Amino acid sequence: MITYDSVTKIFGTGKDTVTALDNVSFTMPKGEVVVFLGPSGCGKTTTLRLTNRLETLTRGNITIEDQNIMDIDIVQLRQRLGYVIQAIGLFPNKTIAENIAVVPKLLGWDKERISERIDDLLQMNNLEPELYRERYPAELSGGQQQRVGVARGLAADPDILLMDEPFGAIDPINREEIQNEFLKLQANLKKTVAFVSHDIHEAIKMGDRIAIFNKGRLIQYDTPEVILTQPKNKFVADFVGSDRALKVLGLMRVSDVINRKPKNIIQGTDRSQEALNFLDAREFRYGIVIERNRPIGFVTQKSLKYEEGPVRDVVEHYPLFLREKTSLRDVLSFMLMHDAGTFCVVDEDKNFAGTVTYNDIQKAVKESYADEAESGENGVPV
Amino acid sequence: MIRLLIKLYRISIAVIILIAGVTFERTGLIELLSDPYEYPVIMELFMQHLYMVTLSMTFATVIGITAGVLLTRKRFRRYAGICMYIIGLGQTIPSLAVLALAMSFLGIGTKPAVFALTIYSILPIARNTLAGITAVPPELIEAGKGMGMPPIKILMEVEIPNAMKVILTGFRVALIINIGTAALAYVIGAGGLGDLIFTGISLMQTDKLLAGAIPVTLLALFADFLSELLGIVLISRGLRLSD
Amino acid sequence: MSTLQFIVDNFNEVMYLSWEHIWIVGVALLIATPIGVILGIIITKHEQFASRVLNGANILMTVPSIALFGLMLPVLAIVNMGLGKVPAVIALILYSQLPIIRNTYTAIKNVPPSLVDAGRGMGMDKWKLLRELEIPLAIPVIIAGLRTAAVMNIGIAAIATYIGAGGLGVYIQQGIARVYPEMILSGAILVSLLAIVVDGGMAILERFATPEGIKVQRKLAR
Questions:
Q1: What is the rounded CA–CA span in Å between residue C128 and residue C22?
Q2: Superfamily for B2-236?
Q3: Less Cβ around it within 10 Å: N or C end of chain C?
Q4: Residue A186: which domain range?
Q5: What pLDDT digit, counting tens, does each position of C67-91 carry?
Q6: How many CB pairs below 8 A link A and B?
Q7: Is the distance from CB of A23 to CB of A219 less than 8 angstroms?
Q8: What are the chain C neighbours of B180 within 8 Å (beta carbons)?
Q9: What's chain B look like in SS3?
Q10: Which among B139, B158, B236 has CB closest to A88?
Q11: pLDDT > 50? residue A113
Q12: What is the pTM of this model?
């Protein structure tokens, strides 16, 4: 856990001073990823660099696990913290293995332990050890280099990871992959991570909490949901983007809104006219057709009107089925693409699991705004 | 690798041409060399030459690299500009003048010669060390610092290895100039292969002249080749890959 | 100091020797430059020869100057030109080749290919391109090469005294022979001064020849 207490950083002296950070206070809880977010020059990188004393505090304190960082030997402090910067940080004159081994060697690990650790880390980052150990950074692609950078930061198994726009230099396609991999890693390792980014999408994706900075001040410090639904001021609202309702949907899944027992279910074997009567009586505009517990499509009053045979002969097919883990944002996108208001959800065996309608989604967005309003302050434990 | 082989090829061509040229004079030269009286003299002069070169290069390398590294350290960085200017100036001064100046203040013989050679060789080494280390991308040094590498480790494992190519070039230039200047050291009484060359010129004795000129040339060419080998040994493969 | 006295006393001789020295270097550069620049331009257009030519010039420069004089002596003695200014000038020309060729080559190669494309697209033919784009952009670097060559030549010319070429090296040679310290120092200091002045002068020439646009470009890049 890292605590920032009235942290202030002023560059320069006399007349030409720049206040990079102005009285910033917040606490990073253990085991969570906190994204330091903001435009260029807002102070996010400075905050990170103050943490491992690459910059010196002008005023205030930073404590790690109740120990003031100024009380720890500077070199030892840095060895305890994992530090990952953009890909250029890999030493071109060392092999991948040597690069990763830097901090463990400084800490005095023995050869075997280091070697094992290197193999583990490479595996963790989806780089085959046999193939990559003896290579040099110049031989690797940008994405591979960055993975090695992450591995190097994790080498000494630090509790805390400091990452400075680590994925910035990678092309968007690889970046998404690496982000996903990192999230998987973090789910297992549960490190305390300070992650600097200027990209709101990255922040929402990667962060358990987001600390938004602007011009040296900490503007808002909350979970992504709160920031999206309750931006503190115009700056945050603008930074987050006017499409924040959609972004909130990106955080929600089908499983959050699924209707598992819809009432307008019709069996494929039912006769059309009976089905029509059923729909008419209950005033359903359409019915979902199931056969052997699998959805096969839908029928409307109109499509059934003049039919005689089983419903299954009349059914119109759904263009796709949803899974419980599909994000609501994707669902909305499908709905727009196919001009459909309802989709069926299935499990791995293609069995019917429920439905999601456009109304469900709308309700969910409205509720998330209402929910947070009820919980009062952007409650973050300090 | 390929460049090394090409260099080897070139050197052998040069050697062959030299040998061919020599064959024309063979009556004089081979006789001179096989003369039991002359041969040991030639060897002694060769050894003397080698001695001056090796001694001065050792001093120059140690002092030059140390000076270059020191000028990149935070404390001394402001002096770097002035020092580089002085070094640049020093390199402009003709080698013969340096020898003559050394003689004026230190007398004749091997000592002033070695002194002059050392001073003259420090310049390219120091300048290249400074330039090479300054050229190491600052992000690498930041990364090292941030990871908790103590400054010494950063110097030894990041800065110097990445500057090695440039430093080695400086060394090579210094070495080759050194060998040539050592040949001039004869005029201030230091012996060396220059003895044969200058005597050969003034006495119009071609065999003596060639007995001095050819070994010196071969020595210089060999030193060039040696520097390339040194490069392969000292420069990390990771850095050579970008060539 | 007594050295200053010496120079003042022998002012005419000093002038004469200085002039001799400058003459040798000057003639050598005058001949070496066109050869070097043309060779440099040729190898930029015919890459296959580039490495061979550059390596050859490199090897030339590796050979110690006194050794080169020594090697040339017997060869030129055949035409009775073994001693004197001729071998000196020839050696200087040979030594100047590497800096001049290499700098010309690098300078032209460094002209951004996008500019060459733009020029060609506008209809400039090979010669026009060369004349109006590549060479003007390359001049500052070529002059830098000339600067290196000039300073180097001044040093070698001092050595050439020993094969009878004259020049300021005479003071050093004679001074040592006659054990005349003031003469030695005069020679050493004068030739050093000459080198420093020429170096400085060419630096100014370099700046002078850099097109305004490039100067601005460099300033902004800092």
A1: 35
A2: MetI-like (1.10.3720.10)
A3: C
A4: 2-242
A5: 888 877 777 777 776 778 888 898 8
A6: 83
A7: no
A8: 63-67
A9: CHHHHHHHHHHHHHHHHHHHHHHHCHHHHHHHHHCCCHHHHHHHHHHHHHHHHHHHHHHHHHHHHHHHHHHHCHHHHHHHHHHHHHHHHHHHCCHHHHHHHHHHHHCCCHHHHHHHHHHHHHHHHHHHHHHHHHCCCHHHHHHHHHHCCCHHHHHHHHHHHHHHHHHHHHHHHHHHHHHHHHHHHHHHCCCCCHHHHHHHHHHCCHHHHHHHHHHHHHHHHHHHHHHHHHHHHHCCHHHHCCC
A10: B139
A11: yes
A12: 0.78
- Same structural domain, A205 and A98: yes
CB contact under 8 A, C67 and B197: yes
The complex scores an ipTM of 0.82
For testing the chain B interface, which of C63, C83, C152 should be mutated: the one with the most B CBs within 10 Å?
Answer: C63
**Among the three residues A242, A270, A305, which one is the final residue of a domain in this structure?**
A242
Q: Chain B contacts of A152, Cβ < 8 Å?
A: 147
Q: In what order do the strands lie in the sheet with A294-300?
A: A265-267, A286-291, A294-300
b/e sequence A93-116, b meaning 16+ C-beta within 10 Å: bbbbbbbbbbbbbbeebeeeebbe
Q: Is B184 on the interface with C (CB under 8 A)?
A: yes
* B156 near A CB under 8 A: no
User: Which of these three, A242, A264, A279, is where a domain ends?
Assistant: A242
CB contacts of B157 in chain A (<8 Å) are 91, 94, 102
Q: Express each pLDDT in A339-351 by its tens digit.
A: 888 898 998 888 8
Nearest CB among B140, B143, B242 relative to A138 is that of B242
B238 and A54: CB-CB below 8 Å?
A: no
Domains of chain C by start residue, with CATH: 2-221 (1.10.3720.10)
- Close Cβ partners of A224 (under 8 Å, ≥ 6 residues apart): A203, A204, A207, A209, A210, A251
The CATH number of whichever domain residue A8 belongs to comes to 3.40.50.300
Q: Do B158 and A162 touch (CB under 8 A)?
A: no
pLDDT tens digits, A273-291: 888 888 888 888 888 888 8
Q: CA of B137 to nearest chain A CA: how many angstroms apart?
A: 9
Do B and C make contact via 3 or more CB pairs under 8 A? The reply is yes
**Sheet of A67-68, strands arranged across:** A18-28, A2-11, A59-64, A67-68
> For residue A20, what are the contacts with CB-CB under 8 A and spacing of at least 6?
A9, A10, A11, A43, A46, A216
